Amino acid sequence: MARELLEKTGVTLRDAVADDAVAGVTPRWVALPETVEEVSAVLRACAEGDLALTPAGGGTKLHWGAPPERCDVLLDLCCLNEVLEHAAGDLVVRVQAGVTMGALAGVLAAEGQELALDAPSGATVGGTLATAACGPRAFRYGAARDLLIGVTVVLADGTVARSGGKVVKNVAGYDLGKLFTGSYGTLGVIAEAAFRLHPLPPDRRWLVVGDARRPRELAAVLAASQAEPSAVELDRPGPGAPVAMAALVEGTAAEERARALRDAAGAGEVSPEPPPWWESSWWDAPPDEEVLVEARFLPSALDGVLEAADAHALRLRGSPVSGRLRLSPAGEVTEERLAAAVAALRERAHAAVVLAAPYEGVDRWGPVGALPLMRRVKQQFDPGRRMSPGRFAGGI
Amino acid sequence: MTPSPSPAIAPLTAALRSALPGDSVITDPVRLRTYECDGLTYHRAVPGVVTLPETAEQVALVVRLCNEHGVPFVARGSGTGLSGGALPREDGVLIVTSKMRRILEIDLPDRRAVVEPGVTNLAITEAVRDRGHYYAPDPSSQQVCSIGGNVAENSGGAHCLKYGFTVNHVEACEIVTPDGALVRLDRMDPGYDLLGAFVGSEGTLGIATKVTVRLSRAPEAVTTVLAAFRSIEEGGRAVSAIIGAGIVPAAIEMMDALAIEAAEAAVACSYPAGAGAVLIVELDGPAAEVQAQFARLRELCSGAFELRVAADAAERAAVWRGRKSAFAAVGRISPAYIVQDGVVPRTSLPRVLAAIDRLSAEHGIRVANVFHAGDGNLHPLVLFDDAEPGAGERAEVVSGAILDLCVEHGGSITGEHGVGVDKARYMPKMFTGDDLDTMQLVRCAFDPRGLSNPGKVFPTPRLCGEVPGVRKGVHPLVESGKAEQF
Q1: Domains plus CATH for chain A?
Q2: What DSSP line would sit under A113-131, residue for residue?
């Protein structure tokens, strides 16, 4: 009966296999829509048959979040992979959600432009938005929600809705893009997105400090520098190891500005290449990393976060100036050890979110301030609890 | 209009009087009248009662009393809005935040400040300027407009081309929800980005009572250039060339001949004589970068017949004087005018400006153009003589047709002034019924009773009881006790 409902839509359907699992839960079917209308048709069928659904992109972060309470259909958006419009003169692009960040970067680079959002090249636009993933250069350019200017979403009942548009400056109506960014597929399906773009920087330099003895002070100097770095990142490969720090300077006169940065820091080497750890991606979307935690904090709280990470044998990577670090156990881990580490981080940081962990019992989100309001939002958008139920904060 | 307070106002007023300090509740008709409009003066309504709370708790109390009595409320900051977003309700309470103007905290190491909603935009910058910082969003009204109003409207300004809008510079808000609860929304919190949804919701999702803003480092160098062109087309070509060269200036502003004429009459800004258009381009950032970009900018503006570079802060202010005075200045050349606000993709500017010219000629209505050229945000000033019969109506037609042009070219009906009461009727031109209904799901979550600034933004309110979906009633899993429904 359920399968017939899905087949009636005419959308390509296959039986799910173990590899399709969403945080350990294997769906029954995988649907592969090729248009927004087909997405809508699948969602209508799911509504009719009360089938639960999880949208998926490149699968690089499908193990993030709690396992869904139920998952009948995996909505694989890989076939929605068209760059709809690249208006280079307007520095704007409109894309379908299944376009990978790598493919998009290629299209934009041909016109000397980029979407200034650091994400793994295999991740899709939709998945990057749904997880609100952001990387080093968020310090300068903002996070995904700051670069998104328009969105097309499909709701649990199949309604197709749009907000924003394809101009950067626009205050007409509510900004659904911000609401859907970081919503982990629990409000609906992100089908299309429009972004503001930036010119590709003509030049880049890194200031690399191999052993930052006083990381908080150094980060503060780098952040306040008139050389205006785009990113300041630190890396500590394990407890007790030295903290490496690097700052990226992009744009005109990068060499001159990076030298000014070095003078201000009183340490480090200027290089046209990033340090080797900058390109490593364990902190971002590691399919082989079973446990990943994100700490969010004010820059002045860095020392406490580093101490907690050290005490609980976590390696870390991220931005001391944006106040966002990703942490992962350096050695063997158990549910109890992880819980203790996260508790320690929550004492020192504003928030610590367990992005990925194979444990049922761990409190992934910690305290969520406006949870009653969030539940009301969920209730309005997905009253039948079919959209990735249970994946998100507070059991949403 | 004569006030026609709803029957519920009298008992509510009594409750407000006993709950708030005496001078915080205004019922005197003469004083009520001073609040009858915001910056958009042709929409007027005398509020049923005005309250001036001094604390977040008092705001929450007023909102809870409004809920008890089923009376709508409208928040107002400095009343400088240009879309009637703070237009009061005759049957409602106006909550004015002007007594809440303390800067609560300045944290330079973490580059943030916590302020009350009545603090003016410029006051934040003034508090940190001598320590090399500033608050980036700079609406033209920044000397008077309040940060609470900026949050409600997601205000921009000339420099948002490079630095973004209010929403990109607000880290957290404490809000009073439409049912009177004090809730903190923080960018760092896990969960939905309710802060992102709240900023720019025009007072329909609650009232901000504390705002945590990001402070920016003042740039090392600023170079302001005034380029004069014979025609608006030549000016437009220079804008495209600058953007095409990969330069993102802090601001690119353009004025046409009529706007220049008005500015000269008002503030004697001494822009180059005979200009069909002037362009103000401001570069800022690291000195080395600004210097290199300026050299490039000179080449890109080779079509200009005169190029002036401001040598210091005083000269920079002189360059900006004409631009910043432009809205008020048209009063010198026209008895009445409409300030329009629309957006088009930057590359459509030449076509849209030509179409506005045709509209102007066709209806015998002059249009002065002032705009944020870098992001395609037009501010046409539609000029008319309100003493001439029918002129106001023709101006309305031209003004509305300009918004149609913006939508046709893939733009927006508002770039920074907001929808408010003024443009709610234009929303269906830009969005489908499904789009608007979906946006209002957020409204239903925050304000199911529709008491927070009703009648703004959306042309027709959604009934929050009607929930989309084929299945009505209780979910089977909830019924069987296997799941909890939130």
Answers
A1: 2-78+381-395 (3.30.43.10), 80-199 (3.30.465.10), 202-280 (3.30.70), 282-363 (3.30.70.120)
A2: EE------TTSBHHHHHHT
What's the rounded mean pLDDT across residues A182-211? 97
Residues 287-306 of chain A with CB under 8 A from chain B are 296-300
Interface of A with B in 161-200 (CB under 8 A): 161-163, 165-176, 178-179, 181-183, 187, 198-200
Nearest by CB to residue B434, choosing from A159, A381, A393, is A159
Judged by CB atoms closer than 8 Å, whether chains meet at A173 and B220 is answered as no
Tokens of A213: 């003895």
ipTM of the complex: 0.97
pLDDT grade for A280, boundaries at 50, 70 and 90: confident
Report d(CA B278, CA B269) in Å as an integer: 12
Locate tokens 């600034």: which residue? B453
The answer to whether A370 contacts chain B (CB < 8 Å) is: yes
CB within 8 Å: B288 and A252:
yes
Closest residue in chain A to residue B216, using alpha carbons only: A224
Q: What is the pLDDT of residue B462?
A: 84
Residues of chain B with CATH 3.30.465.10: 103-217
pLDDT of residue B22: 87
pLDDT, residue B468, reads 41
What is the per-residue pLDDT across A104-144, written as a single tens digit (0 to 9) for each? 999 999 999 999 999 999 999 999 999 998 899 999 999 99
Tell me the pairing of strands B49-51 and B93-96: parallel
Mean pLDDT, rounded, for A74-92: 97
How many Å lie between the alpha carbon of A242 and the closest alpha carbon of chain B? Answer: 24
Q: Test B416 with A171 for CB contact under 8 angstroms.
A: yes
Instruction: Check CB contact under 8 Å for B240 and A168.
Output: no
CA distance B2 to chain A (A): 31
Which structure tokens are listed for B323? Answer: 């631009």
Strands (E), chain A: 12-15, 29-32, 53-56, 73-76, 83-87, 92-96, 113-114, 148-154, 160-164, 189-196, 198-199, 204-209, 231-236, 244-250, 269-271, 292-296, 314-319, 324-329, 351-356
| Contact residues, chain A, for B239 at CB < 8 Å | none
Asked if residue A63 has pLDDT above 70, the reply is yes
| Best CATH choice for the domain B9-96 from the list 3.50.50.60, 3.30.43.10, 1.20.210.10, 3.40.50.300 | 3.30.43.10
Residues of chain B with pLDDT under 70: 1-6, 465-486
A223 interfacial to chain B (CB closer than 8 Å) = yes
Mutate to test the interface with A, among B441, B458, B462, B463 (most CBs of A within 10 A): B441
- Amino acid present at A200: L
pLDDT of A10 reads: 97
Q: How many CA atoms lie within 13 A of B56 on its CB side?
A: 21
